[in-house]
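The aim of this short unit is practical: by the end, you should be able to scan a pair of folded records and say something sensible about each. We start with the first protein, listed as its amino acid sequence and then its C-alpha coordinates.
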Amino acid sequence: MITVYSKPACVQCTATTRALEAKGLAYTVIDLTLDEAAMAKVTELGYRQAPVVMAGAQHWAGFRPDLIGGLAVTSA
Protein backbone atom coordinates (compact mmCIF):
# COMPACT_ATOMS: atom_id res chain seq x y z
CA MET A 1 0.00 0.00 0.00
CA ILE A 2 1.44 3.34 -1.09
CA THR A 3 0.17 6.56 0.45
CA VAL A 4 1.12 10.00 -0.85
CA TYR A 5 0.62 12.82 1.64
CA SER A 6 0.17 15.86 -0.56
CA LYS A 7 -0.75 19.55 -0.66
CA PRO A 8 -2.66 21.49 -3.32
CA ALA A 9 -0.62 23.13 -6.10
CA CYS A 10 2.46 21.10 -5.15
CA VAL A 11 4.68 20.50 -8.19
CA GLN A 12 6.66 17.71 -6.53
CA CYS A 13 3.41 16.04 -5.43
CA THR A 14 2.11 16.04 -9.00
CA ALA A 15 5.43 14.69 -10.30
CA THR A 16 5.32 11.92 -7.70
CA THR A 17 1.79 10.78 -8.52
CA ARG A 18 2.53 10.89 -12.26
CA ALA A 19 5.64 8.76 -11.75
CA LEU A 20 3.68 6.24 -9.67
CA GLU A 21 1.04 6.05 -12.40
CA ALA A 22 3.69 5.63 -15.09
CA LYS A 23 5.10 2.65 -13.18
CA GLY A 24 1.62 1.16 -12.80
CA LEU A 25 1.65 1.46 -9.01
CA ALA A 26 -1.59 1.92 -7.07
CA TYR A 27 -1.59 4.63 -4.44
CA THR A 28 -3.84 6.72 -2.21
CA VAL A 29 -3.52 10.50 -1.85
CA ILE A 30 -4.20 12.27 1.44
CA ASP A 31 -4.39 16.07 1.41
CA LEU A 32 -2.38 17.35 4.36
CA THR A 33 -4.30 20.64 4.38
CA LEU A 34 -7.55 18.77 5.07
CA ASP A 35 -6.38 16.04 7.46
CA GLU A 36 -4.89 17.23 10.76
CA ALA A 37 -4.05 13.69 11.91
CA ALA A 38 -2.11 13.04 8.71
CA MET A 39 -0.22 16.32 9.12
CA ALA A 40 0.65 15.37 12.69
CA LYS A 41 1.84 11.94 11.53
CA VAL A 42 4.27 13.26 8.90
CA THR A 43 5.45 16.05 11.20
CA GLU A 44 6.22 13.51 13.94
CA LEU A 45 8.37 11.63 11.42
CA GLY A 46 10.34 14.86 10.92
CA TYR A 47 9.09 15.82 7.47
CA ARG A 48 8.62 19.48 6.59
CA GLN A 49 7.91 19.26 2.86
CA ALA A 50 5.42 17.54 0.61
CA PRO A 51 4.92 15.06 -0.72
CA VAL A 52 5.61 12.44 1.90
CA VAL A 53 5.39 8.95 0.43
CA MET A 54 4.84 5.93 2.65
CA ALA A 55 5.20 2.49 1.14
CA GLY A 56 5.21 -0.21 3.79
CA ALA A 57 8.16 0.41 6.12
CA GLN A 58 9.80 2.78 3.62
CA HIS A 59 9.03 6.51 3.58
CA TRP A 60 10.53 9.67 2.14
CA ALA A 61 9.76 13.29 1.27
CA GLY A 62 9.98 15.05 -2.06
CA PHE A 63 9.99 13.75 -5.62
CA ARG A 64 12.24 10.67 -5.63
CA PRO A 65 12.06 8.87 -8.99
CA ASP A 66 14.86 6.54 -7.87
CA LEU A 67 12.81 5.28 -4.92
CA ILE A 68 9.62 5.08 -7.00
CA GLY A 69 11.54 2.94 -9.49
CA GLY A 70 12.59 0.69 -6.63
CA LEU A 71 8.96 0.24 -5.61
CA ALA A 72 8.10 -0.79 -9.17
CA VAL A 73 10.84 -3.44 -9.11
CA THR A 74 9.78 -4.90 -5.75
CA SER A 75 6.08 -5.04 -6.73
CA ALA A 76 6.78 -6.84 -10.03
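Turning to the second protein, read its sequence before its C-alpha coordinates, just as you did above.
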Amino acid sequence: MILIAGPCVIESRDSVFRIAESLKKYDEDETIDFYFKASFDKANRTSLESYRGPGLEEGMKIFEEIKKEFGYKTLTDVHESHQVQRVSEVVDVLQIPAFLCRQTDLLVAAAKTDCIVNIKKGQFMVPADMQYSVLKVLKTRGFETCDYETSKKAGVWLTERGSTFGYGNLVVDMRSLPIMRKFAPVVFDATHSVQMPGQGGKTGGDSSFVPYLARAAAATGVDGFFFETHFDPASALSDGPNMVRLEELEKLIEQIKAIREIVQ
Protein backbone atom coordinates (compact mmCIF):
# COMPACT_ATOMS: atom_id res chain seq x y z
CA MET A 1 0.00 0.00 0.00
CA ILE A 2 1.33 3.40 -1.02
CA LEU A 3 1.13 5.93 1.82
CA ILE A 4 1.88 9.60 1.23
CA ALA A 5 1.87 11.65 4.44
CA GLY A 6 3.26 14.86 5.84
CA PRO A 7 2.40 18.53 6.32
CA CYS A 8 0.81 20.67 3.65
CA VAL A 9 3.76 23.06 3.54
CA ILE A 10 7.19 23.35 5.12
CA GLU A 11 6.48 25.81 7.91
CA SER A 12 9.92 25.62 9.54
CA ARG A 13 12.75 23.14 9.82
CA ASP A 14 11.78 22.28 13.40
CA SER A 15 8.11 21.64 12.66
CA VAL A 16 8.75 19.53 9.56
CA PHE A 17 11.31 17.40 11.41
CA ARG A 18 8.90 16.94 14.30
CA ILE A 19 6.25 15.64 11.90
CA ALA A 20 8.76 13.49 10.01
CA GLU A 21 9.92 11.88 13.27
CA SER A 22 6.32 10.95 14.11
CA LEU A 23 5.88 9.12 10.79
CA LYS A 24 8.79 6.68 11.18
CA LYS A 25 6.45 3.79 12.06
CA TYR A 26 4.98 3.85 8.57
CA ASP A 27 8.34 3.78 6.83
CA GLU A 28 9.31 0.80 9.00
CA ASP A 29 6.08 -1.07 8.17
CA GLU A 30 6.88 -3.65 5.49
CA THR A 31 3.30 -3.59 4.21
CA ILE A 32 3.54 0.14 3.38
CA ASP A 33 5.41 1.94 0.60
CA PHE A 34 5.91 5.24 2.44
CA TYR A 35 6.58 8.70 0.97
CA PHE A 36 7.08 11.82 3.08
CA LYS A 37 5.19 14.79 1.63
CA ALA A 38 5.59 18.53 2.08
CA SER A 39 5.48 21.57 -0.20
CA PHE A 40 8.29 24.08 -0.60
CA ASP A 41 5.93 26.57 -2.24
CA LYS A 42 2.13 26.70 -2.32
CA ALA A 43 1.77 28.75 -5.48
CA ASN A 44 -2.02 28.39 -5.65
CA ARG A 45 -3.04 29.90 -2.31
CA THR A 46 -6.31 31.82 -2.39
CA SER A 47 -4.87 35.09 -1.09
CA LEU A 48 -1.63 36.94 -1.78
CA GLU A 49 -1.20 37.29 1.98
CA SER A 50 -1.32 33.53 2.63
CA TYR A 51 1.89 31.73 3.63
CA ARG A 52 3.48 29.96 0.66
CA GLY A 53 6.55 28.21 2.07
CA PRO A 54 10.33 28.68 2.25
CA GLY A 55 10.90 28.60 -1.50
CA LEU A 56 12.76 26.30 -3.86
CA GLU A 57 16.34 26.33 -2.60
CA GLU A 58 15.58 26.36 1.12
CA GLY A 59 12.93 23.72 0.58
CA MET A 60 15.36 21.43 -1.24
CA LYS A 61 17.90 21.80 1.55
CA ILE A 62 15.29 20.68 4.08
CA PHE A 63 14.28 17.72 1.91
CA GLU A 64 17.93 16.70 1.63
CA GLU A 65 18.21 16.82 5.43
CA ILE A 66 15.06 14.72 5.83
CA LYS A 67 16.34 12.08 3.44
CA LYS A 68 19.70 12.00 5.23
CA GLU A 69 18.16 11.86 8.72
CA PHE A 70 15.28 9.43 8.10
CA GLY A 71 16.00 7.75 4.77
CA TYR A 72 12.48 8.54 3.55
CA LYS A 73 11.39 8.60 -0.05
CA THR A 74 9.92 12.05 -0.62
CA LEU A 75 7.24 13.80 -2.65
CA THR A 76 6.61 17.44 -3.40
CA ASP A 77 4.61 19.43 -5.91
CA VAL A 78 6.01 21.51 -8.75
CA HIS A 79 4.12 24.41 -10.30
CA GLU A 80 6.39 25.55 -13.10
CA SER A 81 8.53 23.74 -15.65
CA HIS A 82 11.72 25.51 -14.61
CA GLN A 83 11.43 24.03 -11.09
CA VAL A 84 11.35 20.42 -12.26
CA GLN A 85 15.03 19.68 -12.85
CA ARG A 86 16.21 21.10 -9.52
CA VAL A 87 13.48 19.34 -7.55
CA SER A 88 14.06 16.02 -9.33
CA GLU A 89 17.66 16.04 -8.07
CA VAL A 90 16.33 15.67 -4.50
CA VAL A 91 12.87 14.09 -4.32
CA ASP A 92 11.53 10.74 -5.55
CA VAL A 93 8.06 11.80 -6.69
CA LEU A 94 7.09 14.94 -8.59
CA GLN A 95 3.47 15.87 -7.92
CA ILE A 96 1.46 17.79 -10.50
CA PRO A 97 -1.13 19.96 -8.70
CA ALA A 98 -4.79 19.41 -9.53
CA PHE A 99 -5.21 22.85 -11.10
CA LEU A 100 -2.28 22.07 -13.44
CA CYS A 101 -3.13 18.49 -14.39
CA ARG A 102 -3.51 19.38 -18.08
CA GLN A 103 -0.47 21.65 -18.24
CA THR A 104 1.45 19.98 -21.05
CA ASP A 105 4.84 21.64 -20.59
CA LEU A 106 4.86 20.81 -16.88
CA LEU A 107 3.87 17.18 -17.49
CA VAL A 108 6.48 16.73 -20.20
CA ALA A 109 9.21 18.33 -18.08
CA ALA A 110 8.36 15.96 -15.21
CA ALA A 111 8.30 12.99 -17.59
CA LYS A 112 11.86 13.75 -18.70
CA THR A 113 13.16 13.06 -15.18
CA ASP A 114 13.69 9.73 -13.44
CA CYS A 115 11.06 10.55 -10.80
CA ILE A 116 7.66 8.98 -10.34
CA VAL A 117 5.05 11.46 -11.58
CA ASN A 118 1.91 11.77 -9.45
CA ILE A 119 -0.83 13.67 -11.28
CA LYS A 120 -3.64 14.97 -9.12
CA LYS A 121 -7.02 14.91 -10.84
CA GLY A 122 -8.40 18.39 -11.35
CA GLN A 123 -11.58 19.22 -9.44
CA PHE A 124 -13.03 20.13 -12.82
CA MET A 125 -11.98 16.98 -14.70
CA VAL A 126 -13.99 14.05 -16.01
CA PRO A 127 -12.20 11.04 -14.47
CA ALA A 128 -11.84 9.20 -17.80
CA ASP A 129 -10.17 12.25 -19.36
CA MET A 130 -7.25 11.92 -16.96
CA GLN A 131 -5.91 9.24 -19.29
CA TYR A 132 -4.78 12.02 -21.63
CA SER A 133 -2.65 13.62 -18.92
CA VAL A 134 -1.18 10.19 -18.21
CA LEU A 135 -0.48 9.70 -21.92
CA LYS A 136 1.49 12.94 -22.05
CA VAL A 137 3.90 11.44 -19.52
CA LEU A 138 3.87 7.94 -21.00
CA LYS A 139 4.55 9.06 -24.56
CA THR A 140 7.38 11.30 -23.39
CA ARG A 141 8.86 8.24 -21.68
CA GLY A 142 8.53 6.11 -24.82
CA PHE A 143 5.29 4.24 -24.13
CA GLU A 144 2.38 4.23 -26.57
CA THR A 145 -0.33 2.42 -24.60
CA CYS A 146 -2.19 3.75 -21.56
CA ASP A 147 -3.21 1.06 -19.10
CA TYR A 148 -2.62 0.21 -15.46
CA GLU A 149 0.41 -2.03 -15.91
CA THR A 150 2.13 0.33 -18.36
CA SER A 151 1.68 3.30 -16.03
CA LYS A 152 2.88 1.28 -13.06
CA LYS A 153 6.00 0.27 -14.99
CA ALA A 154 6.56 3.83 -16.23
CA GLY A 155 6.11 5.39 -12.79
CA VAL A 156 2.91 7.37 -13.32
CA TRP A 157 0.21 7.67 -10.64
CA LEU A 158 -3.12 9.46 -10.46
CA THR A 159 -4.53 10.98 -7.29
CA GLU A 160 -8.23 11.59 -6.64
CA ARG A 161 -9.03 14.64 -4.52
CA GLY A 162 -12.71 15.30 -5.10
CA SER A 163 -14.75 17.21 -7.66
CA THR A 164 -16.23 20.69 -7.56
CA PHE A 165 -19.84 20.58 -6.39
CA GLY A 166 -21.46 23.95 -6.90
CA TYR A 167 -19.72 26.75 -5.01
CA GLY A 168 -17.61 26.14 -1.92
CA ASN A 169 -17.76 22.36 -1.79
CA LEU A 170 -16.21 19.17 -3.13
CA VAL A 171 -17.66 15.69 -3.40
CA VAL A 172 -15.96 12.37 -4.09
CA ASP A 173 -17.57 10.18 -6.72
CA MET A 174 -16.21 6.74 -5.83
CA ARG A 175 -16.83 5.64 -9.42
CA SER A 176 -13.82 7.74 -10.41
CA LEU A 177 -11.47 5.36 -8.59
CA PRO A 178 -12.09 2.25 -10.74
CA ILE A 179 -12.44 4.41 -13.84
CA MET A 180 -8.99 5.96 -13.42
CA ARG A 181 -7.47 2.71 -12.19
CA LYS A 182 -7.98 1.29 -15.69
CA PHE A 183 -5.06 3.38 -16.88
CA ALA A 184 -2.87 4.11 -13.80
CA PRO A 185 -2.33 3.26 -10.14
CA VAL A 186 -4.66 5.45 -8.08
CA VAL A 187 -3.98 7.20 -4.78
CA PHE A 188 -6.87 8.61 -2.76
CA ASP A 189 -6.23 12.02 -1.19
CA ALA A 190 -8.59 11.93 1.77
CA THR A 191 -7.61 15.28 3.25
CA HIS A 192 -7.91 17.51 0.18
CA SER A 193 -11.20 15.80 -0.63
CA VAL A 194 -12.82 17.46 2.40
CA GLN A 195 -11.80 20.98 1.39
CA MET A 196 -14.40 23.74 1.19
CA PRO A 197 -13.07 26.44 -1.17
CA GLY A 198 -14.13 30.05 -1.12
CA GLN A 199 -14.38 30.69 2.61
CA GLY A 200 -13.70 34.42 2.74
CA GLY A 201 -10.33 34.58 1.01
CA LYS A 202 -9.15 31.15 2.08
CA THR A 203 -10.02 27.48 1.72
CA GLY A 204 -11.79 25.79 4.60
CA GLY A 205 -12.67 22.16 5.20
CA ASP A 206 -13.98 19.57 7.61
CA SER A 207 -11.45 16.91 8.64
CA SER A 208 -14.13 14.95 10.54
CA PHE A 209 -15.12 13.40 7.21
CA VAL A 210 -11.61 12.17 6.34
CA PRO A 211 -11.99 8.73 7.99
CA TYR A 212 -15.32 8.05 6.25
CA LEU A 213 -13.96 8.85 2.80
CA ALA A 214 -10.70 6.98 3.39
CA ARG A 215 -12.51 3.84 4.52
CA ALA A 216 -14.88 4.06 1.54
CA ALA A 217 -11.95 4.38 -0.86
CA ALA A 218 -10.27 1.38 0.75
CA ALA A 219 -13.43 -0.65 0.18
CA THR A 220 -13.70 0.57 -3.41
CA GLY A 221 -10.10 -0.40 -4.12
CA VAL A 222 -7.14 1.92 -4.60
CA ASP A 223 -3.36 1.57 -4.60
CA GLY A 224 -2.62 4.09 -1.88
CA PHE A 225 -3.63 6.98 0.32
CA PHE A 226 -2.57 10.58 0.81
CA PHE A 227 -2.98 12.30 4.18
CA GLU A 228 -1.81 15.72 5.21
CA THR A 229 -1.02 15.53 8.90
CA HIS A 230 0.19 17.85 11.66
CA PHE A 231 0.76 17.84 15.40
CA ASP A 232 -1.60 20.83 15.72
CA PRO A 233 -3.80 21.37 12.65
CA ALA A 234 -5.40 24.46 14.20
CA SER A 235 -2.03 26.25 14.08
CA ALA A 236 -0.99 24.98 10.62
CA LEU A 237 -0.15 27.68 8.11
CA SER A 238 -1.95 25.92 5.24
CA ASP A 239 -4.86 23.44 5.00
CA GLY A 240 -5.28 23.12 8.75
CA PRO A 241 -9.06 22.43 8.61
CA ASN A 242 -8.47 19.36 6.44
CA MET A 243 -5.54 17.75 8.24
CA VAL A 244 -5.50 14.62 10.37
CA ARG A 245 -3.81 14.94 13.75
CA LEU A 246 -0.69 12.80 13.95
CA GLU A 247 -2.01 10.77 16.88
CA GLU A 248 -5.25 9.97 15.00
CA LEU A 249 -3.56 8.78 11.83
CA GLU A 250 -2.38 5.43 13.16
CA LYS A 251 -5.88 4.14 13.99
CA LEU A 252 -7.13 5.19 10.56
CA ILE A 253 -4.25 3.44 8.80
CA GLU A 254 -5.00 0.23 10.69
CA GLN A 255 -8.68 0.43 9.67
CA ILE A 256 -7.72 0.96 6.04
CA LYS A 257 -5.34 -1.99 6.08
CA ALA A 258 -8.06 -4.23 7.57
CA ILE A 259 -10.56 -3.19 4.88
CA ARG A 260 -8.00 -3.77 2.14
CA GLU A 261 -7.37 -7.30 3.39
CA ILE A 262 -11.09 -8.08 3.17
CA VAL A 263 -11.42 -6.60 -0.31
CA GLN A 264 -8.33 -8.35 -1.64
